[in-house]
Each structure stands twice: as structure tokens, then as C-alpha cells.
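USER: I would love a firmer grasp of how sequence relates to backbone shape in proteins. This is the protein in question:
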Amino acid sequence: MINIKGTMNEDTLTISLDGRIDSTNAEEVEKQITEIREANNYDKIIIDAGKLDYISSAGLRIILRIRKEEDSLKIINVSSDVYEIFEMTGFSEMIPIEKAYRELSVEGCEVIGQGANGKVYRIDPETIIKVYKNPDALPEIKNERELARTAFVLGIPTAIPYDVVRVGDGYGSVFELLNAKSFAKLIEENPDNTDKYIGLYIDLLNKIHSTEVKEGDMPNMKDIARGWAEFLVEYLPEGYGERLVKVVEDIPDSNYMMHGDYHIKNVMMQDDEVLLIDMDTICVGDPIFELASMFNAYVGFGSCSASNVEDFIGLPYDVTNYIWDKSLDMYTEGKSEEEKEEIKMKAELIGNSRIMRRTIRRDKNQELIDFCKKQIISILDALDK
């Protein structure tokens, strides 16, 4: 048995389904839906499946016939069991279908991680949740899940989300991480072990950077960095923008993995295992781009105001500067001093380019823009020498 109800909200007709649709009632269900559609003047149509327990192939044919007549058709509040039917039959690729998501609150929860696109909270000793800044983050969540799975299959120890939930007006991904702590928290609690944690942090970074990825499976960081450089051409003195673009162009192409937002709030310790979180920025590229991101997290964003880094990482600025220097020293172990210096300059060059572009486009902090411009010019001149 099924109950069907139609309601109008401005130009949208919502048809709510309550019960089951199978071969025994499919004809009557289609008749009722048709009567509701004919009785209302609407531009858009939504099927609310919040109380739909089951749908058979006969019911799917009804949906298909409606879809052929209604380009705007969308199905919402679909349970996991019913969504699986839509997904297996390919309907989720033809029609916008939104799952019903349980709701969670992060009020009063500890922030244990933070990235460019969201914050990570601990809900309880076993559970963490990443809450996305974008209120319409479902495509981002799907993309991050696929990237995390690809990395996991390639041997990178990463947490994979097992559920998607509603958090206020946005979305979150839920992970099971029993008693895990970020490296930022571990260093805060055990400052005498800072070098030990940096060593483990660099060990994982080396593993990531030695993992080759099939071409096309992940975004290419060089393409993104080239865009930063090209954007700045009109904001730098004559010739310097072109030189910046050339430095980026000359960095070797690479199909080896990089995280893209690698800092100590995105690396966790669970028991004795080191795990990587916040995988939406994972990509491929030369390690210099990863080092540029690390420089920004520990030093660059604090160039004009140390509190930017201190608030983000949760440690004093002199400590984050030490982490950057020590990380770079460990990562470049075995290279000559000249090689180390060139790597450091290029990382800082690309890091400042990213900050300058970001600042021009967002908060327009002229002091920070001028500082980054000065650094870029100075580094380009040094590289030429």
C-alpha cells in the first residue's frame, strides 16, 4: 500500500510517496501521480521519497516516464536502501537524486584538523567529522572520497569516510578514528618529542611522493600553479611575471602523488599508525609544489601577522618556523647545500605567488600583497644569479 500527496510551493510541485511501489500497485500509483500533475500548474517537479520503503522495476518505469516529460524532475530524501536501487539501475546518473542524511551537531566539539575547504571535529572518542565550508558540498565529498580510495588502494594510509551527514545548512563526512590525535596536538602536548614527530611526518611524505599514479587519475598541480603565475603577470614589474611563469614551466612534470595541503593538522596518529586526512587536495606533481604549500602553512601566511599561522596550526609562530626548517632539512637530506637552497627558494617563490594571488582575489590586504611581491622579486633575482 502507498499514500501519495501533492503540494505546491510557488512554481514547484512536490509529490510525496509513503509506502511501497511494486507490480501490484504500480498502475494505480501512476494514475494518482498523473491526476496530481494535471490538477496543478507548475514549472518544476520534485518527488519526495522520504517515506518510500521500496520501489520495484515497475515503479522505476513510472519514474522514467515522468522524467521523459519533465526535464526538471528531482528526487529527494531517498533512504540508503532505495538509493542503492536507483544507483544500481543507473537512475542516479540520469536524474538528480538526493539521499536522506542524518543530522549531526559539532557545537562544543574539538577542532582537530583544518584545511582549505573545511574543518575536522572530534565528535566522540571513536568518531571525527569533516565539515565543508561550501553548503552545497556533495560533489566535493564524492570527489574527495574517490581520491581517498585511490590513494588507499595505492598504499597510502588514509582514513576513508563511511557516512555523509547534515551539519546545520551544510554537509560533513564521518570517519572512524579511535583516539586519534593530530601531530599538531601531539607536538603541543609533548614538545620534547617534536623532532620525533617531524621525522614520522616526513617518512609519510616520502611515501606519498614515491607513489606513482596512473595518468589522469588525479589533478595535476603544475597546471594549477601555472595559473597562479599567469594571474600575477599584470601585478608584477615588467618582466618579472614572465620569469615567474617560466620558473613554474621549467619544474619537471611528474605523475607522483602529493597531498596538496600537507601540514601537521592533517596528519594523525592512531595507536602507532600514522594516517593522512583531508584528501580533497590530493593530486600529482613535483615535490616542490608540496613544499610550497608546507611553507605557506608554517611561515608564509604569518609573514605580516604571526597570529594567522598560530590560529591555524595551534602552535607559536617560532615553533611552526622550526617545523618548516626541520621538515625541509629532513626531506632534502643527502642533497648539497646549493641544492637545498634552490629547493627552499623555489618553494618560497611558489608559496608567495599563491598567497599574493589569493590575497588580491579575496581580502585585498595591501600590506601582504606588497610583502609577497617583494619576496617574489627578490627570489627571482637570486635564482637568476
